């Protein structure tokens, strides 16, 4: 009969019993280290990924600021008590454009014809460069060369002050204006104009403290009205301070009976 193959473990055990030398252990320094499955992320890779995230965020912010919304800071009290100096508002750039301007909208526009008493002071140094950069990408509120008022008259509208009760009228319809500053009259100046094509008539809610269309008009409606292409957008809400956060109404019921012309 063929012999069964010897069991190597049994053979080694017999040799050890007979005094055979034990196999020498492998020196620690000669042991092979297994490579790590996951290498730690290098500092360079981390910096590169961070830079990509920052650039992507800035590009996204720039696109949003250019086409969708942008923050603006309120510099004066001409829109009190709707807006207070220092308030920051979010302005939708979808109006005008995707959406039409409507009477009662609170609109932000660039200075149409030297309405500002003096040009805004230019920031200098590192801080000025940082602020300008943040404004460019929409992370810091603009406002130095912009104004904010309420839209009262659309192109073709006849805006006049005032009827026998001292109310402003648009296309012959007297307005009840709940947004006016407490105690302020609709207007201390009498006027009657027709808004030219492509332009709007704007007034502050604090009529006694607002250099608006009335202050810049020559009686024709041409010099006091604002070109629509100067309108940056419609203010939709207060975002700062947090305690004053709210949506801004266009008070549609104030103007719902005004007929179009």
UniProtKB/TrEMBL annotation:
Name of this chain's protein: Signal peptidase I
EC number(s) recorded for this UniProt protein: 3.4.21.89
Active site residues according to the UniProt entry: 78, 149
Organism: Metallococcus carri
Record SUPFAM superfamilies: LexA/Signal peptidase
Compartment(s): Cell membrane; Membrane
Enzyme superclass (EC): hydrolase
Biased composition (Basic and acidic residues): 206-220
Gene name of the record: lepB
């Amino acid at each position: 009969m063929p012999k069964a193959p010897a069991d190597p473990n049994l053979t080694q055990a017999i040799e050890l019993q007979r005094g055979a030398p034990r196999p020498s252990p492998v020196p620690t320094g000669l042991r092979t280290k297994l490579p790590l499955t996951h290498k730690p992320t290098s500092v360079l890779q981390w910096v590169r990924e961070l830079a990509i995230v920052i650039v992507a965020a800035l590009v996204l912010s720039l696109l949003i600021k250019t086409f969708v919304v942008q923050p603006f800071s309120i510099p004066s009290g001409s829109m009190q008590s709707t807006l207070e100096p220092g308030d920051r508002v979010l302005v939708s750039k979808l109006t005008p454009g995707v959406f039409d301007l409507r009477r009662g909208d609170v609109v932000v526009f660039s200075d149409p014809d030297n309405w500002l008493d003096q040009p805004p002071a230019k920031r200098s140094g590192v801080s000025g460069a940082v602020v300008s950069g943040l404004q460019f990408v929409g992370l810091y509120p603009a406002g130095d060369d912009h104004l904010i008022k309420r839209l009262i008259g659309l192109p073709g509208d006849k805006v006049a002050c005032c009827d026998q009760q001292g109310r402003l009228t648009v296309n012959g319809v007297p307005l009840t204006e709940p947004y006016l500053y407490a105690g302020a009259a609709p207007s201390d100046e009498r006027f009657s104009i027709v808004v030219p094509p492509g332009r709007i008539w704007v007034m502050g809610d604090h009529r006694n403290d607002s250099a608006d269309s009335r202050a810049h008009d020559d009686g024709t409606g041409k010099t006091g009205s604002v070109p629509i292409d100067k309108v940056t957008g419609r203010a939709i809400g207060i975002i700062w301070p947090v305690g004053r956060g709210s949506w801004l109404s266009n008070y549609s019921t104030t103007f719902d009976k005004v007929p179009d012309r």
